[in-house]
Amino acid sequence: MTVAGPIPSIVGALLCQKDSYLQTLETEVVSCDEYVPPKSLQTNVKSKAKKSIDSEKGSDSGTATPSKTWLIEFADSVLFPEGGGQPTDHGSITPLTSSDPEAVLITNIQRHGLRCLSFSSKPLSPGTRVRQDVDFNRRWDHMQQHTGQHLLSAIMDSLDLPTLSWSMGAAGEMNSIEIPRKPSHEEIKSIQDRCNQCIRDNVAITVETPEEVDGAKKLPGDYDKDKGVVRFIKIGDLDYNACCGTHLKQTSHIGLILLHHTQSIRGTNSRLYFSAGDRAIKLAIESINSIRNIAVSLSSSTSLTDVQNNVQRLTDSYADARKREKKMLAEIATYEGARIRSVLESGKNAWSYRATDGLDFINLVAFEIKEAARDRGVVILVSGEVKTAGSIMIIGEKGMVESMAAKVKEIVSTVKGGGKGEKWQGKVTEWKKGEIEALKAAVENP
Ligand SMILES: [Zn+2]
Q: Hey, which family's this protein in (predicted)?
């Protein structure tokens, strides 16, 4: 239902874009229509389609609630629609003239062509006066990350490290930019210093909306640049870029830019992680606290060098312990091999059991006895404990291996295995009570 009313502001000239520090606005409903998901989104079969619904429906997403969603357009908006790499605002709409002045929570605002549409769980009649309130902590965080990225990319551009793409991390997480090569430590330090110098210099960030726009500038396919307003963000002499997002007014409001680590991607490209402003401080505090916790569990001082040295020492001693354990296991296997050979020589079937070490130990023992077992009798090697998984190996004369494998399948309920001739191997999903004992008895008293 749309009635004649004020002509709504278009995306590009919304109040949230003209004054991104405004947190509240009294405005009026221009249109309100029930949201009908596009046909491709109406089936929840494909996970991709479901994801699209999630991102379009905001707070209504993910559940099969039959509740309706309404798309509301206002005369103007302090609530920013998703765009320019910046996520949707969150906020609320409070009707001012209705008998039901309860605030409606808004967690999804989207640009459709030139229109800014809020996804609402309640319909509001055109003409209704409302107050919009922005979740400004969320917006401020987005503006710090987003404006921080403009500054970071501008500085890296001047060092011949152009930004190929960027991604804002979810609340409290790192952001990243993709660049064509891995920067050196010196470059990272220099970029970090130059970013923070520019923040200290408190450079003004302004917006220009030229009448004529170079057709080569990248704009979304469904944005009509002839009817719309294309915004260029200018950071002093450093940056001049078309962008529809919300930005800080001066570089000092970014607070700081913290460069994290790099990661190699797509051949020689590199992803540089960063954070800005309050988010960077929060991440740094979390990091400091983690190091402290690691230091406490290592009984180390909190000096970074001490913590690193202690972690290295722990890793080294773990590797040594693993080596010693391996050697010891091989020694035990040698003794077990000798014992089995003497059992075989006495004309009996041999039973070998070890609760731990699984196939590692079984293979070591099998190596010790394979020749003795080929000549006479049969050996069954077993690992695992009740209620856990395990392994079984049978080696020996062909006919005896086959009949022993048949017995194993009779006794062990969860065994699966196979093999031909002189060796049979099986996996036990879970040993049941009494099965190991029954198997031992079957081997030793055939
Ligand atoms: Zn921007």
A: Belongs to the class-II aminoacyl-tRNA synthetase family. Alax-L subfamily.
